[in-house]
Amino acid sequence: MKNNSYKILIVDDVEQNILIVKSMLEKEGFQTKHAHDGMSALKIVEEEKFDLILLDVMMPKINGIDTCRYLKIEPKTASIPVIFITGSDDKESLKIAYDVGGIDYIKKPFFKEELIARVKTHLKLKDYEKNLEQKVVQKTKESLETQVKLMYTLGGIAEGHSIETQMHVRRVGEFSYKLGILYGLKKHEAVRLKHAAYMHDIGKLSISDSILHKNGILTNKERKEMTKHAKAGADMLGKSDLPLFKAASIVCEQHHEKYDGSGYPHSLRAEGIHIYGRIVAIADVFDALLFPRAYKESWDIQKVLDFLKSMSGKHFDPKLIDLFFENIDDFMTIYKIELEKTNYKKKKKFLGLF
After folding, report:
1. For the chain, which terminal residue's Cβ has fewer other Cβ atoms within 10 angstroms, N or C?
2. Nearest-CA neighbor of 55 among 19, 89, 99, 106?
């Protein structure tokens, strides 16, 4: 492929650094775009495709490490090679850079020849991997995208029509994907779980609005009626032979089961609960407590974390809770990014742009 077919994103908070790198790359024929901070970069990659990202480490608000960590968590951007540009050669910092998914680093100041050589090398490697996967991806892409869009749309309808509840569906998927990867699910299965998690409360479509949107504590009768949504969701999806719908049926039916057997609808316990149900249970509660709803205020983050720990072995699988807290930085990165996205969508809607 010719250089002008490649698109590279440059992320640096220093304008002069961007101009220097941009000039070097464009003289070689590469297309470039730039961002001055991590959040701007993440918004750009949501809307445009890039073949490579050159990422500064030290930036305000969201640094390069957290930006890369989120890029690698998100399936849509996980395959984009990230080369760090850093003024430091501290071994511990470099180790962290590789741990979060960076494939290389270039130390400032650098030579043009060094930058161009490394960029070309990693683009060639990416093309090689892409060609191996392309045939399989092409056969399944359209079918899977249709299923995922349906999952997200129906999941959002079930949760409600506000931005907050629709974003809840998305965030539960993101948290579930990360925890699934940490547990050891293969990437394709973790992606399936992410999309299946969009539908975790689809059964709420069978619950009357008077109960579903009640501002206040439910009566015992109302609470009993509400618990029916888990089985109802499973019944809605369980007749399909599609793997994604089968996974969503499991999630619907089991995400309210509890590790000690006190959950519903079947009072399952421990490993008797499917791993999908155990993972989504944590993701759902974590998000529900962190973010406000019409009927509740958000909890303080430390209060949320303390609650999750206190429910280990009771509500939640203790092994999964341990994985969650061992990797808490990753989950907090997702939380920070998704909070920014929610606020951004609210602002766009307020301005009539959404």
Report:
1. N
2. 106
